[in-house]
Structure formats: structure tokens, C-alpha cells
Amino acid sequence: MGDMGRIPVGIVGASGYGGVQLVRLLMDHPRLELAYLGGESSAGKAFAELYPHLGHRVQQIIEPLDLEKIADRCQVVFLSLPNGLAYKMAPTLLEKGCKVLDLSADYRFSDLSTYTAWYGGDRDDQAIAETAVYGLPELYRDRIAEAQLVGCPGCYPTASLLGLSPLLKQGLVVPETAIIDAKSGTSGGGRQAKVGMLLAEADNTFAAYNVAGRHRHTPEIEQVCSDLAGHEVLIQFTPHLVPMVRGILATIYANLRDPGLVREDLLTIYNAFYRNAPWVRVLPSGTYPQTKWAAGTNLCYIGLEVDPRTDRVIVMSAIDNLMKGQAGQAIQCLNIMMGWDETLGLPQLAFYP
Amino acid sequence: MGDMGRIPVGIVGASGYGGVQLVRLLMDHPRLELAYLGGESSAGKAFAELYPHLGHRVQQIIEPLDLEKIADRCQVVFLSLPNGLAYKMAPTLLEKGCKVLDLSADYRFSDLSTYTAWYGGDRDDQAIAETAVYGLPELYRDRIAEAQLVGCPGCYPTASLLGLSPLLKQGLVVPETAIIDAKSGTSGGGRQAKVGMLLAEADNTFAAYNVAGRHRHTPEIEQVCSDLAGHEVLIQFTPHLVPMVRGILATIYANLRDPGLVREDLLTIYNAFYRNAPWVRVLPSGTYPQTKWAAGTNLCYIGLEVDPRTDRVIVMSAIDNLMKGQAGQAIQCLNIMMGWDETLGLPQLAFYP
Amino acid sequence: MGDMGRIPVGIVGASGYGGVQLVRLLMDHPRLELAYLGGESSAGKAFAELYPHLGHRVQQIIEPLDLEKIADRCQVVFLSLPNGLAYKMAPTLLEKGCKVLDLSADYRFSDLSTYTAWYGGDRDDQAIAETAVYGLPELYRDRIAEAQLVGCPGCYPTASLLGLSPLLKQGLVVPETAIIDAKSGTSGGGRQAKVGMLLAEADNTFAAYNVAGRHRHTPEIEQVCSDLAGHEVLIQFTPHLVPMVRGILATIYANLRDPGLVREDLLTIYNAFYRNAPWVRVLPSGTYPQTKWAAGTNLCYIGLEVDPRTDRVIVMSAIDNLMKGQAGQAIQCLNIMMGWDETLGLPQLAFYP
Amino acid sequence: MGDMGRIPVGIVGASGYGGVQLVRLLMDHPRLELAYLGGESSAGKAFAELYPHLGHRVQQIIEPLDLEKIADRCQVVFLSLPNGLAYKMAPTLLEKGCKVLDLSADYRFSDLSTYTAWYGGDRDDQAIAETAVYGLPELYRDRIAEAQLVGCPGCYPTASLLGLSPLLKQGLVVPETAIIDAKSGTSGGGRQAKVGMLLAEADNTFAAYNVAGRHRHTPEIEQVCSDLAGHEVLIQFTPHLVPMVRGILATIYANLRDPGLVREDLLTIYNAFYRNAPWVRVLPSGTYPQTKWAAGTNLCYIGLEVDPRTDRVIVMSAIDNLMKGQAGQAIQCLNIMMGWDETLGLPQLAFYP
């Protein structure tokens, strides 16, 4: 297919980790082309100055933000900005006919009061927010296909919800018993200079943070779990920092309603649930996911066990936080919005070791 | 105090990580002196050949195992061997009047049928096994003081039990709801060459293993929890491997019996429980432990939160798996057995970062 | 292009890191298909048992070695075995018309006496060894194109020679002053279980090994340097182990013959030298390579400086030791042998961070 | 000895890595007591807020800088501040009779024009600067003993000079051929938040920086080398960043004047040179230093090889950059200034692994 068949795409927020993943993925996508790279503090710089290893493929200069210009040039815009900025830009872009995929939290909540309770600010764009679809294709593929505006999920919610959804959807566990003990590499903290994220601080150590429902991804997980369970559900969610760059593992515990279920039953159910989900791989019996199996891919690997002594199921769900947990999933959503195969242009084989 | 005041100590199993910690700690202990270093495969080698960085302080040659000779020379013997060997040596040493501290699993179980169910073999030394005291001083200090034979706890049980004990002892939580999601550095796997422990395999990744009660530390945790709760308790325990060398963090979840309890209540209870425990530090409100705060020390750091939304307590307990989780705790036990201050000769200040 | 256009390829030695890279790369190569996977100890196992993350794409069973069968099925065979095995298999395969690419040291030396001096054994296959071409395309592209047998370079020689060649070829430096201080991730040690390569041993530390010309890659570097310089050259080569999985950086020092040369002169010369080398990227003035820019790609990144105070040039050359340093380069050679574009099917964009 | 025998010590710049090492080391020193902890941005905070793991031993509040108060309370002051601040404080402290040990570059140069050429600013305190002694005890022990003002060496110079000094002092090598290829953990960059030092950026990668004599430690190394050689010497120095927290390895190359010297000759010379240096350990023949052997200790480990093929000596020198490379060495200097054993209160046994 020639370049005539390529869709022009813009990225706003080019310099962060979300931005560089998107740029990297666009280079290998057969139907997309990068038409605009926008940044605030980095405007005027060559992208290759920030990421020299892409210099042989990406010659673009980062441009200052100009919504008119973006909309003129692009059919699709990825917003990869700190929380609280996207909702000021998206309306203009939507009005001008662009499809918008937002990687921040701005469009993840159907009810804006939840958003403001956790992220602050005051917003009066409930109407637009309601048109946004939560960009988790394994649950909302059909709605994403119709969407003009997608709020891409957080990294923790992606790993957690893919691990937990079959259980909640089929009513196999008591939702209130669900505990998500999640562990993430430090790239989830972004490219901002923070003392706690220095290698000298974060290497050789392991700790929890935002314990007891204090992490902003909690309401996002609960929103979807409540949707699946059919009633409001509170989920125990604890994030931890792993001394590594990429990857999230969510270890999920829940009490089975039917203690007679064994591991193989649940694996069958999971395989059926994800039968048409090319980016979820349910592992064979007795195999547990390593986060690095997913590194650099858009895959989610799931393993599980049933503990007959405690009547609990333990699900392990592993993703690359910057791929399936962020930029890769955004491209997957766009593939669906465009009516393409949802695997198009996305990497599915990790390098090991 | 002169060397006349030093107690001669033997270490059997000098070449592994347990052995080298013990040797290292003995060098700084004011009342102990290394009188015998024994090994099987390494016999005849200078210890400094295995660990050149200790060469300026440790000139000993590793000797072949000879129980007579050990008992002649030593008042105290540390057995730091693979499981299933200590119980063949300890009786002779005990008979000859040595105090014995075993770092393996051989003497951790009051009921040998539990041991054989998890570790195999057939043993008929129930009588001796019953004289052994479980070497967790924060729970069994008085019995350790009287013991001639101590079975030192595993690393995971140490972190887990120190985090969970105040809750179980005081009846504050429903024991059956306790979930221990534990994470360990790879030194816990010992100095044996195993593919899965290669840096190339274990770095940049995170995974669970022995999920659903398959880890041999499970019965050890349950034995003590049952003792504390006053009835048999099953505990959900899941170990994970962290890409770092040292350290364990146990994140512990349990449902509060009294949902009115707040974080400060529990911190008060923990501080009281550990008032006389110099090696446990309960952290201030809102502070969570980093494993590297404990690295190279015999300390256990504990932080906790109550989640009023779910009525759960979340306890985080951090140790150095080779110190408080192994060799340091063995020395702490010996200090108690000798009637010394239990902090004697043990490091309490980590280097940071 | 249909599968009819794919060339059937065999891999002997499927279970090591060389093998898994080759398998992974074949999956994405548009003109190759995996027709045979052979192993000794792993024969009979599914490849996905060893590398579960590739299970959704690789269903092959590892077969026992049977040269007849391999030659029947494959036009091309990659030998990815410990040193000293390939030369016993290659003759049969060559005779039956296969192209053979050997990843071991067996066919890297034009003079077998050099091989046996460093690798031992006695070989009488000088005639076949002489037909082998050293598989460094940037220097020997034309000969590789004609070759039936390629001895693929070691990882250190690849990084070192790409950094040093323009200087030697143009006679810009005094060859005897060349010092190569090289640093490698631990995956270079392979998938064999060795104590020194355990994460617990190799993490948080840095050391040299095989100092003073004791590393087996020394004669390989010297063979090519002598070829380039036109006379026998001895090179100082020191390898070090970096606590990371992938990547080699070679820092190369040499005294300039003409002290008037400045950085920009040399960059111009390097750019010219590598004008037709799609897998070598000479970095802009003042930019030095990070090994992770090359991770998962077949690229070599080169940066350099001239020190006017000492009249030395310092060249930094970075590769992924398992890609351009091993499996990727083998595929690049095959592309050339088949008359295809040498970039075909090889990754050129790293994921960052 | 009672507390009456303890010397009151002040630390200015308490919050950085230099500060926390000093505080940590003071806690274990039998003759020093912490009398003042000063900081600018952190004034008013409890030290334990910054470093909770020391909370059980350090209850001090960080105080605002007040030179009068410091001099009133302290006999000795450690200045652990960014470059360019110490020289504004030291004169007052010296005048009031304090001994001053500066961990910055301010007092490392006998000739202030070298300082200003590399660090900028204009200073007119040449007279005071000339009274400062360069705090490398293995070379300047006698002068340190008499000093009131010590400029403590940088981390790279410490490792480099300890490795190179015996060769230069004895005239065994051609000074102009000396090349120092040095590798450091990232803690050398301090506790400032910098993007390049984030774990996400600096992990899994290896690179050089400040190549070709651009690093500020170059003139410091050259000053001492010139002193030892008896004439001005230019040294090739290249620093690299290792993905680890602590440790420096300097790999040093130089051409032997007498090609007949073998490894054992040089080891004898090194052992003699460091006979009275308790903090330098020359390793046995064939053993090379690991940086982690020195971690948490004040030791420098040295190994070496002679390459008879190239007539070069290769010296490897390993230290903990924050201990012998910074705070530990400062305490060692103070021990000497006070007339105490220079090993007093300093750790000499690393924890391994």
C-alpha cells in the first residue's frame, strides 16, 4: 500500500515517555503517518535531540501547540499530556472532525464528579466527557469502534481489569473480596525529574506507595468493576515500585463463590472470555507470567491458580506499562476506530532475555 | 574485654550465603570468635578464595566435617546447610554439650509430620525436634533463652510473622482473611547456579512463583499463626521475585474485626507489642518501609494503613532476607541464649542509598 | 509475497540465547521460514516450554540432531552451539548444498592454528575453514555475498572492529596504541547456570575479567585489525561485566598520527566509511552512544571525540550483544548471501526507556 | 571511654548523599559526636524525615546555617555542599579554631587558577587555599596530620590515584601513556533530581560522558600525577555511568618503562607502597576487584596484570564512591588530624552478596 493510504496523525506532548512510544510505534505502522509533533517546553527542538536513537527515522521538529494547525493536518490526534490539559484541547479538535485519543485521566470517567474528587479542578464539560469511551478494547471494543473520543486507561487499571474481568463478568467471585497487589517499573512515573525516581534511590529496593486506596487509579478500576459486577464495588488496590524500567504485574486475589471450581475450569473460562482478544494470552496451566515476556509488546499475559485450601483464585496479569498500559493500547484503540485489524502495526514478540 | 571472654563458635556450611553472613557478623561481634569453618565441597580451600573481600580479616581454611572436632573446639555451632542434613548432625553436637542453631528447615516444626509432608524424607527424631525452639525472638524470646537447640525461621516467615503477629495475638483481624503478598530479592535462592536466577533471566522482570500455598514457607507461617490465633489457621501466601539482591517486603492484608479502628490505633498497638523488641521499628504514620532501609542490618521495619472503605488493615514489613531473615537473626538468638543484650554485635544502620 | 517465496531455515542449538534470538527474528522476517529447530538436551520439548512468551507464534517441537533431515528440509542452517561442535557438522551440510552460518568461533579464523591455540582441540579441516568468510558485513560485504559458509563474529569483536576500522583502514592512528576497554551485559555469558552470573553475584557490581589479552575474542580482533593495517597488530583488549542484561559498549583509545585532526574531521571520515552501511549510525558531534539505544535492534551506534591535549581519539561503539553482536548480524549476513536488502526483517528502532 | 571523650562535630549540608554518609558514620564512631546538622533548603526538618531508616538513632533537627553557632558548638566541621560555597564559610570557621574538612572541590587545588578554569567564579583566597591539604592519606598522610583545612578528593581521583600512584612514584611507567577508563554508579551524581539519573533512563544501559578530558576531576588527577612524576603530566580520563548505585572501578593502562617486569614484581611493589595503608588492599595474583567488595566500607581494592605482549600494565582499582570516595575518606583524614588510628570507626567489611 502506498503512502496515499496513510492517515495523518498528530501527537501532542511529544517529549515524555508516552510521546516517544507513540512516535516509535507510528514508525512501524503501515497505515499511519506522523504529521504533527507538538510540545510546550520542547517546542523548536528536533525530536532527535531528545531521543537520538530515533534520529535515523524521525527528523521532525517539535512544534508549538496550535490546535487549528493540528486539526488542519491531522485526522487523528493523540494527547499525551499531564492530567487536566486534554479536556481544554479536545473539544476544539473534535469539533473540527478529528478523532481524539487521550492518554491522560481526563476522559476516563463517565461521571466528572469522580474525576474532580481525585484529580481536582472544576470542569463543566460533562456532556463531552460522556461521549468518551473507556479505551479498554477487550471490554468495550464495540463502543470504541464507534467513538470519536477515547479516554485511554491507566497502566495499573489495564493490567488489573484484564486479570479480574472474567471473574466479575461471570459472577465467579465475591467482588468485595478482590485485592489487587500491583507492582510497576519506574517508567510509570514519567520522564519528570523526581528524587524518589533516581536510580540511586529506586534501585535495590522495593516498597509500596499510595496504600489503602490512595492511588488515583483506584476509582478507575472500581468504575469498570462496578460496571461488570452490576453494582458498586470497592476494590483494594496497592501499588508498589519495582527496581526495573518497564512492566506491571498485578497479583489479584478473590474468594470463589463456588469452591468446587479448579484451575482448569477457570483457565477454560478465561480462554473463552479472551477468545477474540488477540492481545491477551492466557498461559498454560502452571505457567505464571514474567513481566519481561510482555516488554516492548502490546500483550497482556495472564496466569492463574486456585487454592483449594482457601477457596481463593489468584490471578497474575502482566503487561508493559508503556505499551498495553499506555501507547500500544492507544494505537490498538485507533486500529479499532478505523475499522482495521486491531493488531495492525503493533509488536507482539518480546526480546528475551 | 579480652579474647579470654570470647566464646568459640563453629559454622558448618561456610561457603553459601548463610555462611558468609555468619562469618562476616562474627568478625564484628565482641563476644564470639570463629573457631571452626566447615564445608563439604569447599573443604581444603581458604575461605578467602571464595570471598576475597574478607581476606584481610578471615584467614581460615575450610575444614572437612568432623563432628568430634567441632564439638571439641566449639561451644556453639551454626548449621547452615541444605534442608535435611542438620538433623543428622545436631544430636551428636547437642549430646556433647554444644548449643546448636540451625538455619535450615529441619528444626522449625514441632510436628515432624508437617516437616516430612513438605520436605520429604523420613525422620524418627520427634523427641529431639520437640526440644527445638522456633528462633523468632520477638515471639519466643523466653523459650529461646532456655534452648539448647534453635530452629531459625525462614526469611519469608520472619517478615510475614513480624508484620502479622500483633493483629493475630490481639484478635484484631479475622485470621482466615489474611493474605501475604511477599516479594524477595534473588539472594534468597542461595549461591547455587540455577538458570532462573541468572542476572540475564531475573533482571528487568517480576513474577510470582509457588502460587496458591505451594511454597515451603507456608506451613511455617501457618504453624505460628495458629499458635497466635489459638486455632488452626490457613494463610494465603504468595512469593514473588524482585530484580534485586537483598530484601523482602511482605504486604499483608486482613479484615478488621472492629471497623472502627484507625491507623493511629493500630500503630499504638504495634508500638506496644514491640516495645521491648530492639530489632523491630514501627514507622511513623504515613511512612512505608523500603527494603533497602534494612539492608545489611538486623532490623525489621513495619508500616501500616487502615482502609476505612474496605475495613482492611494493610501491613508492610521489610527485612534483609540474609540478616533478620537468616544469619542476623541466628546471632540475635544466640545473644539471647547466652544471656547477652540481644543487639550485641549486630548492625543496625543501613548505608543509603 | 506468499509463503511460496519463503526460504526454509534450520536452527541447530535452539535453546540458548542465540537460538531464541534467531527464532524471534525469523518470526518477523518476510522471506524466511523456520523449518527445523534442533537441540541436544532439549530435544523432544516444545520450544514454548523453554520460552513461553513465544508460545502464541512458535509451536515447534525441538528435534534431535539429524544432519540428513536438516539438509533435506533446509536451504540455510544456523549453527548456534558451544565452540568446537560446528566444524563437525558444517561439512556435511555444505556438501548437501546448504548455506551455513555458524555463530560459534569455529569458522572465525583463517588460520586454524590460531583457533586451536585459543580454543584447543585438534582440527584438520583447514581447507574448509579457509572457505569461510568472517561475517562482518561492514568490512566483508562482497565476500559474504559469495560465501556458502560464514563464521559470524563474536560480540566484542563486532563492537570493537566497527569502532576501530575506519581509523586503521585509513591509517589515521598508530595501531599499537589502540586500547579497547569493553563492557558487556551478562547475557553474553549465555544461558548456562554459572555462579558468577547469578543476579545475586553480578548485580550492583562492576569488574574486569580476562585482563591482559586473556579473552578469546582478542585474536579475532587482532586478525581483522592486522588485515586492515596491513601488518600484524597486537591490540590491548579488556572486557568488563556490567550489571545489565544486554548491550556492549567499547571505549577505544588510539594515538592519532596527525595531531591536527579534529572531531569533525573524523566524524566526516566515519560517515563516509559507513555511507553504505545501514546498520551503523555515526552520532552527531558531542553525542555519545547509550547501549540501550541499540537494544533489540541490529544497529551499532558510534560516537567519538578527539582530545587535543593528548592527541588521542576516543571512539565509543555500542551494540546489542545478542543482535548486531550475534543473531541479528547472522541474519544480516544471510540477507546479503541471498541477494536481499541487508536490512530485511531486522528491527531498527529500540524501545526507550 | 565516656562521652566526655567525644569530639563535637558539625555537618553543613546534611541532606545530600555526602551528608547522610557522614551522619551514618558518626553514629558508629567511638570518638566523635554529632553536635550540629545544618542545611539550607531542609532547615527546620527532622533529619529522620529525609532518611527515616536512621530515625531510631538520629533525632536531630536540621538547623539553618549560622557560622557563629557552629564554631561555638563544634571542634570539627565537615562541609558537604555544592562546589563554590565552602570557600565562603571555611575562613570564618578556621579563624574560630575549627578544623575544617571540605568535601567539595573548593580546596582541592593548590593553584586557584586551575580551580577557576574548571569551576568558574572568581576567588581571591589563594593564601587560604594554599594552607589546605589534599585529603588523600595514602599520599599525604603527614601533611594531613598537621592540617587545619583539608580538601577531600573527588571520588574518581581517589580510585584513579590509588591505582596509579605506585607506578608514577617509582617511575615505572611513561606517564603520558596513562589512560584511566573509569566507571561509576549513579549515586556519584548526588541527590538532585536530574532526568538522566532517573532509574528509567540510567538502568539497563551503559555510556561514557565528559569524554576527552572534559570531566572536572581531570585537573585534580593531573595535579597529583604531576606531583608524583615530578613534571607536568596530562592524563587521559574517561568516566562512564554504570547502572548501579554505589561503586567506582578505574581500569588504568600505562606503558612500562622496563618491559621485563612481570605481574609479581609489580604486586610486590604495590604491597610495599601500601604497607602502612590500612585502607588499601592489594589483591593476590590473578584476582581482580569487584566494586561491591568495597561497598559500605572505606577500602580500596587493587588488582593488576602485566601484558607481556604489549608491555603494558593494567591496574584495576575499586572503591565505594560515597565512602573511600567521599565521606569515609573525610573521616579517615579526621582520624589522622586528631592523632587517632586512621581506621577508627570506619567499616571494613562489606556485606556480600
From TrEMBL, chains A, B, C, D:
Location relative to the cell: Cytoplasm
GO molecular function, one term: NAD binding
GO CC term (a single one): cytoplasm
Catalytic activity: N-acetyl-L-glutamate 5-semialdehyde + phosphate + NADP(+) = N-acetyl-L-glutamyl 5-phosphate + NADPH + H(+)
Residue positions of the active site: 155
GO biological process, one term: L-arginine biosynthetic process
Pathway linked to the protein: Amino-acid biosynthesis; L-arginine biosynthesis; N(2)-acetyl-L-ornithine from L-glutamate: step 3/4
EC number: 1.2.1.38
Pfam (any one): Semialdhyde_dhC_1
Annotated keywords: Amino-acid biosynthesis, Arginine biosynthesis, Cytoplasm, NADP, Oxidoreductase
Domain Semialdehyde dehydrogenase NAD-binding: residue ranges: 8-147
Role this protein plays: Catalyzes the NADPH-dependent reduction of N-acetyl-5-glutamyl phosphate to yield N-acetyl-L-glutamate 5-semialdehyde.
Family: Belongs to the NAGSA dehydrogenase family. Type 1 subfamily.
Name of the protein described by the UniProt record: N-acetyl-gamma-glutamyl-phosphate reductase
Gene expressing this chain: argC
